[in-house]
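Review form for a predicted model. The reviewer records the input and the model, then writes brief findings.
Reviewer: anonymous (R2)
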Amino acid sequence: MTATTAMTATHSLQPRSARTTPIAAIATAPGRGGIGVVRVSGPDVSAIAQAVCGQALKARHATYLPFLDAHGKAIDHGLALYFPAPHSYTGEEVLELQGHGGPVVMQMLLARCLDAGREMGLRLAEPGEFTRRAFLNDKLDLAQAEAVADLIEASTEAAARSAARSMEGVFSDAIRALVEQVIHLRMLVEATLDFPEEEIDFLEASNARGQLANIRDALGGVLAQAKQGSLLREGLSVVLAGQPNVGKSSLLNALAGAELAIVTPIPGTTRDRVRETIQIEGIPLHIIDTAGLREDATDEVERIGIERTWQAVGRADLVLHLVDAADYVEHGLSEIDDAIDDRLCGHLPPGSPILRVVNKIDLAPKVGEHHFGADRPHVVAAIGPNPAEVWISARTGAGIDLLRGQLLRLVGWQSGNEGTFLARERHLTALRNAQSHLDLAEERAAQEAQALDLFAEELRLAQDHLNSITGEFSSDDLLGTIFTRFCIGK
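Model under review:
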């Protein structure tokens, strides 16, 4: 690829044109409500508006009128809005009919629209098809389109605010800034490849290594923010593990603030996983209480529960290994708990930490200020085979606030980050791949001119991965996977 093609690569797919068949759908959630919306998008939508509303509509003005059936009788009364192309959500002509939100009324109004548009091929919209057309018509890039779904599905206020920032283009702007820097560096590299007779020392004259270092630093910052946004979107899977009767169910109840799990002094009370989602600083935490781990379980149901515990550990972002405070103070970590630690490390996904939770300090008379103080609870900051440690009482609530803070610290959450944008695993993968190619580009740069063509190729591959985030280069399979997960009508 020459320097000229490098400059124009990001614009090679524009303009993008969507399919021209008109589509219609109910845009509000199923069920009864005060208001329901039927949305139509495509060419010649004004003709459908004329048929259903009995008059031409003024662009971008809400008009209160009756919605008419084929015989001119009113189906409902409501507001009609007409948006001419390209000044609409999809970039096409759009009609929105806002009536009463009863399911029968909505279905009658949708059926009327489909009947009025039959000759022009009006059909029911597929899931996410309105937003897909907005993407194909350059009203949104792919990251912004995904943020639309993320905003709808946001489970916390922090996630909703971050999704809104992504929808406004904060994430996309950061990606485009990176792409522009990569393109600029590619131009310099490829110009040197095209004119070798100049015999200039490219790496020195253009400060290529300095530019590459700046790009790598900027990418690292975007990746760090994306990881924070991914936590907001996906949440964390936190598994409570340990021997029977160490207080796992009590801890679940304490974290959730409700009596969700049955608590008894009888070992093995919990036979299956109990799952509850809580919020800490806007991060969804999916807490999973599991069956107590022991080798001598004779009950078939309990053995199945233990096996499911290990399955849950294998998918966990973080494991809390609970131990009994009285035994821990008296004898240290028991052989059984030590074996559980080893097995947890073997089952956990790479990078997922273990937090040792020393529970029942209220029942351990030998626990003193050096273990757990009101102002300075005992915390050991190691991770892995020697896990971090927090001392609590799930029954009295002592240390629970400290525990909540440790959960977020161990997975890298930074509180007070108002600039976070929401990100998906797809985005993280693309950013990591781009980072890997920039790392390889640094290695090629160290080889001077002998590897200049390989240096240019690594930059090109990094740019492709960045472009995939905003959809400059996206396969139909990827688009299908993304938009079919949207709700119908969006």
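Findings: Residues 1-18, 266-272, 372-386 have pLDDT under 50 and may be disordered.
Further findings: The radius of gyration is 29 Å.
Recommendation: see findings above.
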